[in-house]
Amino acid sequence: MTDTERIRALRETILRHDRLYYVEARPEISDYDYDRLWSELERLEAAHPELITPDSPTQRVSGAPISGFEKVRHDPPMRSLDKTYERGELAQFDAFLHEKMPDAVWDYTVEPKVDGLSLSLLYRDGLLLRAATRGNGEVGDDITANVKTIRSIPLRIPTDAALVEVRGEIYMTREGFAALNRREEEAGREPFANPRNAAAGSVKLLDPREVAQRPLDAVLYGVGALSGVTFATHSAMLRTLAEWGFKTPPWQRLCMDIEQVFHAIDELGARRHTFPFEIDGAVIKVNQRTLYPRLGSTAHAPRFARAYKYAPEVAETRLNDITVQVGRTGVLTPVAELEPVHLAGSVISRATLHNADMVQTKDIRIGDWVQLSKHGDVIPAVDAVVPGKRPPEAVPYRFPDHCPVCGSEVSKLEGEVAIRCINPDCPAQRVGRLELFVSRNALDIAAIGSRMAEALVQAGLVTRPLDLFAINTETLSTFKLISEDGSERRFGKKANDVAQALANAATLPLHRWLTAFGIPGIGETAARTLSALFPSLSAMQDTALLEEILAFYAAIERKLSPEDDRDLFMGEIVARAEALKPHGLILRDDPERSIRDRYLLTVKPEMARALFHFLKAPYATDLFARLAALGIDPKPEIKQASGNALAGLSFVITGTLSHAREHFEALIRDHGGTVQGAVSKKTSYLLIGENPGGSKYNKAQALNTPMLPEAAFMALLSPTPQAPEMPPPEASKEAAGKPLQAPSHPDAYVQDDFFGSLK
Ligand code: AMP
Ligand code: ZN
């Protein structure tokens, strides 16, 4: 098989699996096997850039950041829908149609009205040419690069039609929305008001790589411009869209008459919260598209359809009080204490007010009547004050300028909306830190729940999480907890579980401990990446490497700043990168790319900065001393077993190997070697698989670079025969808690946040 054929075959296969996974939600292969296909394709394309086509799955995140969006004209315009909240008006709609077309026969379709933002997709000769927002209906924004990152949208559709414009809605899944908002709030940024705003904000990001991180999806339910294809009915069109690989409305009804339509909208109303997207109504359409020309449209909307909106799920109630909660990182969150009220199937007595800014902008006062809404399974939120119901004595709410828990000063960091208690001894923060410390991704001490955490802090037994180690099991088992109903119970046997978990803690890998420390901005993923930089926890006290990383990023920033001479700092950047290479944290060095993209490091600047600041604080000094006293010095997960067999060697990889390329990159780094993107005089070996890329192969031949087949490469890693006391490689790797061969997943080595950015 030639490379051209292999590339084509890979694309077809990936396309099929994309569809199975993203559209039909029934994957047939493991992530691991999928990643292998993907990296093989990437590799072949890198070797043959001339064979890259715009519909290749690798091109989903290929656009460079832009400074603005081009305008596109919609022909035909993207109209809105006439809406109603009344069934009577739907009956009038039906009567109007009968009056207008006395001779015709038709039925209706009913489908959900997706609450996202309208999208137009233009396919020429089956190839996705352009994606656009609705804008004002006549003119919208070209968001092609961003929309390509949505994996359920086919880049090519199997049709002979010269032109097909497919229309629908982009949305953010409810789950994705909740997770995104949690991340935004934790980062001190303003959360999005609802999934639709979040989706709209996401498609308007200027960098497709960021868009690719957002949980966006799309449902397609219509067509615009068509040439070379027609559809007799709406339902037939939806079927064809589905055949072409689009996600179409997951719920549809075909109704013989308006009575059946009423029935369908009741049915849909009852399950409106069961969809992955928000719906704000039902759309009723005449099924026979052949009748559309007879009906025409108004300036605003087509005459063949109506939207029926469900009464919004909002509630009004009295705001009895505003309390302020303090989280682990000291962030103060205002909470509305409400007169209990029914909303979307549950009784609500508390709702988040997000942050001080929001309370102030909306001028929410204690005693006000407020409007609440609940977006699916998202936490209820106060949307607005009900006008005209404010009691005369209500005064503007003053956000506390001291922490409600510890009374110390609060402060607002630049660029953040969050107000924080800056006292590290704040009991609320202590509880939060303890909760994190015992959480599953950290030390996993399940016996300590949030009530116990609070009690331990309150009793003065724990001021810092490490105090847990000083409490003896006897004390702990007799410790009394007060439950909600006021009754007392003893901690009892659970004390043994705690003791056991603590005894085991010293053997946990470094990243679990780093997570447990709760360093702002360092979650589990960052902890894994950072832990790979150090041989042990105690070694972190030497921050030289972190400083080098920060200096490297600072050099890039300086170079990118417009005031400076473009070439002035290039030499410094390259020199700094070279110095970092032996540490295995450079994943990509591709001189062909722009300076912003040339290097890809495992460690992002924010991570390095966060860890650096943490390590420089007095808190850390004390922490290290205490851990040393406890004899705890965690080690990173993989490095230990690997050794430095490849120290000082640099590799370029080409061709198909037995595992995904990332697997071998990780192996090389874990053994102290470095990975390069292109063969140069400095390359020690070309690791060569099947179907090697032409340019790398030729260059290596020209430069006389030694070429290593996979088996020879693996032999480089193995212990030498002169060391018989060493266990065989597999056993030593197992001993580190992680097999290095299959069935492991490449993500075990490559952290998903930069892995994602590579895709
Ligand atoms: P509105 O945005 O409230 O004016 O409602 C009109 C919009 O509803 C259309 O422009 C579409 O973007 C959107 N919409 C959502 N679901 C559907 C659907 N199933 N059929 C037609 N339009 C829909
Ligand atoms: Zn405080």
Name its key features.
759 residues, alpha+beta, Helix Hairpins, OB fold (Dihydrolipoamide Acetyltransferase, E2P), five-stranded antiparallel sheet, 26 strands, globular, binds adenosine monophosphate, binds zinc ion
Number of strands: 26
Number of domains: 6
Which class of the largest domain in CATH terms? Answer: Alpha Beta
**Count of separate DSSP helical elements:** 28
Distance between the termini: 26 Å
- What fraction, in percent, of the residue positions are helical? 25-40%
CATH topology of the largest domain: D-amino Acid Aminotransferase, Chain A, domain 1
The residue ranges in which pLDDT falls below 50 over 5 or more consecutive positions are 720-759
Instruction: Identify the CATH architecture of the largest domain.
Output: 2-Layer Sandwich
Structural class, by secondary structure, is alpha+beta
Mean pLDDT: 85
Shape: globular
Give structural notes.
36% of the residues lie in helices and 19% in strands. It is built from 28 helices and 26 strands. The strands form 8 sheets. Strands 2-11-10-3-9 form a 5-stranded mixed β-sheet, with helices on one face. Strands 14-13-12-15-16 form a 5-stranded antiparallel β-sheet, with no helix packed on it. Helix 12 (427-437) crosses helix 13 (450-458), helix 18 (544-560) runs antiparallel to helix 19 (570-580) and helix 18 crosses helix 21. It is globular. Zinc ion (ZN) binds at residues 326, 403, 405-406, 408, 421, 423, 426, 428. Adenosine monophosphate binds at residues 80-81, 111, 113-114, 118, 169, 221-222, 249, 283, 307.
